[in-house]
Amino acid sequence: MSHSLLRFAPVLFSAALIAGCTSADPRSALGSGGANQQPALDAATNAPVVQGACPAVTLREGTAYYTTYSKGGDGDPAKIIHQASITDTTRQCRISGDQIIITVVVSGRVVGGPQAKTGVVNLPLRVVALDGEAVLYTELQQQPVSLVEGGPAEQFIYTNPSVTFPASASGSAKLYAGFDPGPYNTR
Q: Is a pLDDT exceeding 80 seen at residue 7?
């Protein structure tokens, strides 16, 4: 009789394991605190942070670098005033009514070239949200960075906390950030 019990031991063990893992709340099996756990809140707005439908920030080809030249020196390395590059991007999403509000953060660095002078460099950074060909959001802002002639590279952190569009488009929207040196349509 004990020999036939040993044959069924794996089946009994599996049944016991499955019974022990079931719960009315599937989140409790993940060790996430169960039904009592509150969603993360954005410190600035006290709104719940959205994880699943938060589009990633993508750099389009040609928008991760920005070089300025002295007048008439386009393409000449000896005429570079400064070069900037984006090194990282991130975002955080929250829902407010029927809108998704995204804080986009772009970090990078600026290095002076042979024509650099001490002063402030304004980097043209644009954030765009697209749903197919439809523009949901676009904004161009200038990010000031102080450079010292002959000094080391300077880091910058650009933050746009107000990227807003309908939450219903968050699953299909594409979010882009990058340098946009123009020309600009000023209508």
A: no
Strand 119-131: give its sheet, edge to edge: 57-58, 174-179, 119-131, 134-147
Given a cut of 70, whether residue 32 has pLDDT beyond it is: no
Mean per-residue pLDDT over the chain, rounded: 80
Residue 5's alpha-carbon distances to 14, 17, 66, 142, in angstroms, are 14, 18, 74, 76
Checking if the pLDDT of 37 tops 80, the result is no
Identity of the residue numbered 90: T
- Count the neighbouring beta carbons within 10 Å of the beta carbon of residue 109: 15
What's the pLDDT at 52? 63
Q: How far apart are CA 185 and CA 187, in angstroms?
A: 6
> And the tokens for 82?
């400064």
Give the CA angle between residues 7, 8, 9 to the nearest 5°. Answer: 95
Q: Which of 44, 158, 65, 28 is nearest to 106 (CA)?
A: 158
Place 49 in a pLDDT band, splitting at 50, 70 and 90. Answer: low
> Strand locations in the chain, DSSP E?
49-50, 57-58, 65-69, 80-96, 99-112, 119-131, 134-147, 154-166, 174-179
